[in-house]
Design brief:
With 298 residues, the protein is of the alpha/beta class. The protein has 3 domains: 1-156, no CATH class; 158-235, no CATH class; 243-297, no CATH class. It is 54% helix and 10% strand. The protein has helices at residues 5-13, 17-27, 30-33, 51-55, 86-103, 138-144, 159-162, 169-176, 187-201, 204-215, 219-232, 237-273, 278-285, 289-297; strands at 42-43, 60-65, 71-79, 111-118, 150-153.
């Protein structure tokens, strides 16, 4: 399943360890936050070589040590719309984590903390993060299934509060307003936090913000977001100009690729008219068999 534009920006943002730490510190339970040895935090979702597990893996997975000696697994997922099988997905996620731990020789299971960042327009169901709401007899569900994840609904958090979240605040602000482009506060209220983030993670993150804005399906909102990012960084004209030049190069390359494809299609049509077989046409044009068959049927 292809990632959404929101997922891509979310994952790019959490490529920066400093952003990830501030995000986790903001949302895991306070008593656990004091127990985590943050210097030991490392990403583990990329270390899995099982292709089947990779297909269904959550967005981001970290591991860290705790003061009392045990490990904690921190799973971070993003959703921009409600998923009716989210609970089933989390059951699979946690099963995969525990199975990997057992295979690695751990005799005790690690603590697993699940976080779901949600920025959808439609409010998720009230029972989304707990399994008991899916059972006909909720008492039985509560007694026999002990799964929970922390639901972070950005749409219910004010911009003022999000701006207190440290280095993950720019990511949250942009994800929150990706459906309305309605930044409620004065521009100056955002600038300090956005600049502090870029100072730590690097100016390339501005490109990630602009790319996210330009990827949005709603063009008007995308332009609002793009303009907002430009105005937040009035002192970074070279970085923003570099992004524009990069877009032009990508458009030029895409144009060349499209031109090559159109040329191959024209050659394929000519070979079809002359009676060449599909295999020969494939060898010459390198077009997929399905494309050639479709051209032949026209």
């Amino acid at each position: 399943m292809a990632r959404s534009k929101h997922d891509a920006f979310f994952c790019r943002s959490l490529e920066h360890p400093a952003v990830t730490k501030d995000f986790l510190k903001q949302y895991i339970p306070p008593h656990l936050k004091q127990q985590v040895i943050w210097e030991s935090l490392y990403r583990i979702d990329r270390s899995n070589t099982d292709l089947e597990l990779k297909k269904r893996h959550r967005d981001i997975l970290y591991r860290a040590s705790m003061l009392q000696g045990e490990d904690v697994i921190l799973g971070i997922e993003h959703q921009s719309k409600e998923d009716p099988i989210m609970q089933i997905r989390y059951l699979r996620y946690d099963m995969d984590v525990l199975e990997a731990c057992v295979k690695a020789g751990y005799d005790k299971w690690p603590l697993i903390i699940n976080l779901l960042l949600y920025n959808g327009q439609k409010a998720p169901s009230s029972h989304l993060s707990e399994p008991i709401g899916y059972y006909r007899y909720t008492i039985d569900g509560k007694e026999h299934i002990h799964l929970f994840y922390y639901l972070i609904n950005l749409m219910q958090i004010s911009d003022e509060e999000l701006l207190t979240h440290g280095l993950c605040a720019p990511m949250e602000i942009l994800l929150k307003h990706s459906f309305d482009g309605g930044f409620k506060l004065n521009l100056s209220a955002y600038q300090g936090v956005f600049h502090a983030c870029v100072k730590v993670v690097g100016e390339d993150y501005i490109h990630s913000m602009l790319k996210y804005a330009d990827s949005l399906a709603n063009f008007k909102i995308g332009r609002k977001m793009h303009k907002f990012v430009e105005e937040v960084f009035p002192d970074k004209p070279k970085i923003i100009m570099t992004y524009g030049q990069m877009l032009k190069r990508e458009a030029k390359r895409e144009g060349k690729r499209e031109g090559i494809r159109e040329g191959s299609i024209a050659i394929a049509k000519n070979m079809i008219n002359k009676g060449y077989d599909i295999k020969s046409i494939q060898e010459i044009t390198e077009l997929p068999k399905e494309t050639i068959e479709k051209l032949k049927a026209e």
